[in-house]
Design goal:
There is one protein chain. It contains 11 helices and 11 strands. With 328 residues, the protein is of the alpha/beta class. α2 (27-42) runs parallel beside α4 (131-141), α4 packs antiparallel against α5 (148-161) and α8 packs across α9 (227-233). It folds into 2 domains: 5-196, inorganic pyrophosphatase (n-terminal core), CATH 3.90.1640; 201-327, Diaminopimelate Epimerase, Chain A, domain 1. Strands 6-7-8-9-11-10 form a 6-stranded mixed beta sheet, sandwiched between helices. A 5-stranded parallel beta sheet has the order 2-1-3-4-5, with helices on one face. The protein has helices at residues 5-13, 27-42, 95-98, 131-141, 148-161, 172-183, 188-196, 201-211, 227-233, 279-285, 303-327, and strands at 16-20, 46-49, 80-84, 105-110, 121-124, 215-217, 220-225, 255-261, 266-273, 289-290, 294-300. Helix content is 38%, strand content 17%.
Length: 328
């Protein structure tokens, strides 16, 4: 029996679906949602795709992205809610308060090790590089076609969540599935061009300003983006989504951080690591989570104070780790 048997039973038995994911959509959440929604529509199901935050402009090239809404219509009802690529209901933000949960089946499909197991049907596979990989396997298990449109959705999800196949979550399956998606119509050049070669002037100015304020303390490197910096560059926060990968590229750095000041007194922190350092554990300490080498959290407070506390906590953990290595 297929490992997806419970999910497939829900899909076949119900007629209307809400598909949602985490706040601040990334390539994996967008790609997996759009591909899954297209499958439901092929099966004649009613589908609404809704996220708290708008789809970032760089994913506009993906067919169906224009139909994703940021608010569930008043009075909307459905038979099932599918939450993709989100470790908890809290991570879907304001959409959680709008969910029509009465007599509704909630299905949780994810690849984050920090997933808290919410929902009536739970499918969490941390060994998958992305939720897009899981959706690929689900479509194949249902004996449905990977159309060129779906192939591009899922390929985008895998490419972005593996950092273009550079992150430790990249596996042989990531490559074999991606090859299969290219055979079925995904265009690597088109995807790469949309993701990495279509920068706005405001994004480039913001990047320059952020790099001019880079901080290095031992094996930790961080970038900080304030609201003032965004205003100065005329940039949006979504334009900084992949800035977190830059600190880790510095020689000798083991942990890279990106602090982003939000409009509501919150600071969004992204963590990246190498040398098998678990930043998921650090992010959980501050109320977040994710993967061992890529994680995040949101903390209330002033960005400078939060940065101080986070860097001190990480420094303490690195000192303890290095001391254990020396004592062996």
């Amino acid at each position: 029996m297929s490992e997806f048997a419970d999910i497939i039973r829900v899909i076949l038995a119900r007629e209307s679906f809400l598909v949602t994911s985490h706040t601040h959509p990334d390539g994996d959440s967008v790609g997996s949602q759009l591909a899954f929604a297209s499958v439901l529509r092929e099966l004649g199901k009613g589908v609404l795709v809704a996220n708290q935050d708008p789809i970032p402009d760089k994913y506009d090239f993906l067919k169906g992205s224009e139909n994703v809404v940021t608010r569930i219509p008043v009075g909307y009802v459905c038979d099932a809610v599918f939450v993709l690529d989100s470790a908890s209901l809290k991570r879907i933000g304001s959409i959680a308060d709008q969910l029509p949960l009465k007599d509704v089946m909630v299905v949780n499909i994810d690849h984050h090790i920090s997933n808290d197991g919410f929902g009536h049907v739970v499918f969490v596979k941390p060994q998958s590089s992305s939720t897009s990989e899981i959706i690929y396997d689900l479509i194949r298990a249902m004996d449905l076609e990977i159309t060129p449109e779906r192939a591009e959705h899922l390929y985008t999800g895998i490419v972005t969540d593996t950092g273009s196949f550079q992150h430790p979550n990249t596996t042989s399956d990531s490559f074999s599935i991606s090859a299969s998606l290219v055979k079925r119509g995904a265009d690597p050049a088109r995807v790469a061009g949309a993701l990495y070669s279509d920068n706005s002037v405001s994004r480039m100015r913001l990047l320059g300003l952020a790099l001019s304020h880079i901080d290095v303390i031992g094996e930790i490197c961080s970038l900080t983006l304030t609201r003032e910096m965004l205003d100065l560059c005329g940039a949006s926060m979504e334009e900084s989504e992949d800035f977190v990968d830059l600190p880790l590229s510095l020689r000798g750095v083991k942990i890279g951080l990106l602090f982003r000041e939000q409009v509501n007194g919150q600071v969004r922190i992204s963590f990246r690591s190498k040398d098998e350092i678990d930043v998921d554990e650090i992010a959980r300490h501050f109320g977040g989570g994710g993967h061992e080498a890529a994680s995040g959290c949101i903390v209330h407070g002033k960005v400078d104070e939060i940065k101080r506390v986070v860097v001190e906590e990480i420094s303490r953990r690195l000192d303890e780790r290095n001391a254990r290595r020396v004592s062996r």
